[in-house]
Amino acid sequence: MGHDNERATLRYQHKSSRADRVIADGLDALVRAEQSRDEEDGDDGPSGVLAPVA
Fold first, then answer.
1. CA distances (Å), 17 to each of 9, 20, 24, in order?
2. Which residues have CB under 8 Å from 21's CB, separation 6+?
3. What is the dihedral of CA 26, 29, 34, 37, to 10 degrees?
4. What's the pLDDT score for residue 45?
5. H helix intervals, 1-54
6. Torsions phi, psi of 5, nearest 5?
7. Residue 1 near residue 9 (C-beta atoms within 8 A)
8. What's the CA gap between 17 and 11, in Å, rounded?
9. Tens-place pLDDT, residues 19-49
10. Which of 9, 6, 5 is nearest to 17 (CA)?
11. Are 38 and 44 a contacting pair, CB within 8 Å?
């Protein structure tokens, strides 16, 4: 990773994992909001349907 020592590498990884957690929590909140909005609308939509991948 280009770091001069193990200590710098560990510090970077720790900060990176913290940022990953923030991103994951944000995405989770978006998904939950969309799901609750779908439930309120009574619209099942395409949720749960597998889409073909080319």
1. 12, 5, 10
2. none
3. -150
4. 60
5. 6-41
6. -150, 170
7. yes
8. 10
9. 889 999 999 999 999 888 877 776 656 666 7
10. 9
11. yes
